Amino acid sequence: MRNSYTAACIHELVANNVHFGWVGGVSAGASHLVNFLSRDADRSRDAFVEFGAHPNTGGLRSLVRGNGFFNAEYIYEVAGNHDSDLPFDYQTFAADRTPFRISAFRADTGDTVYWGREDVSSMPSLMRKVRASSTLPGLMPVPFIDDIPYVDGALGTSGGIVTEAAESDGFTRFLVLCTRGRDFYRKPPRSPRLIRRWFREYPHVAEAMITRHERYNAARDHLKELEREGRALVFYPTNMRVENRERNLKKLQQSYEDGRKQTHDEWPQWMEFLGN
């Protein structure tokens, strides 16, 4: 869970009462989005640290039972209830009028979808979309919204970096939180044929997985262009020690602390950028 590192960024932003004119999230970043807009600093940490290591959230046993390596139904549609393991403050979220976009990928057509506040009417409606955006093909069951199958929004046109949606909505300056280092670029997958065979029910998903590196790398290059123009401040982790499937509590705690230290070190730069 690399987002255990950037969870420290969300915690610091909320704790310091920082607000934005627009917020976007894709994949696990959609959870950061809802935690930020519900102004819950502690939940931003717990979601990717203690809760991330909770036995109910997944593992090999969950995968064998058909619930996915990450038990998405429990994580997104059960745990946030007021009497469950990770309560979500939907009232505060709904009261915040900040425009947002959550991205997902239509598994049946290959279209990229962006949901906003106008598409959310309740906590179940919101969390179903967060789940859809975060669904890793092959590791989590495909969720349906209005009979339409969705998977990880990072497979879409953004490549997993949603500045395209912010620019489309008219914004020109961005704070971007990445979970990969500055020099990271994706490589083409080794076995396209195997991917096509595995996802033969959803050929658009297979093709998006095979070509994702092209969109991701282009988005990375665009980020660096925005940086050079002074229009983006990008947080690149400098000490990332975990991968997406990590569920060991001590490692997640260390990842969060690494992110907290880097956020603290770079905070003056953030405030200078955001103040201009």
UniProtKB/TrEMBL annotation:
InterPro entries: Acyl_Trfase/lysoPLipase (IPR016035), DUF6363 (IPR045943), PNPLA_dom (IPR002641), YjjU-like (IPR037483)
UniProt keyword list: Lipid metabolism
Stretches assigned to the DUF6363 domain: 202-274
Transmembrane intervals: none
Pfam family, one: Patatin
Occurrences of domain PNPLA (ranges): 5-155
Keyword Cytoplasm on entry: no
Biological processes annotated in GO: lipid metabolic process
CDD domains reported in the protein's UniProt record: Pat_hypo_Ecoli_yjju_like
Annotated protein name in UniProt: Patatin family protein
Record organism: Corynebacterium heidelbergense
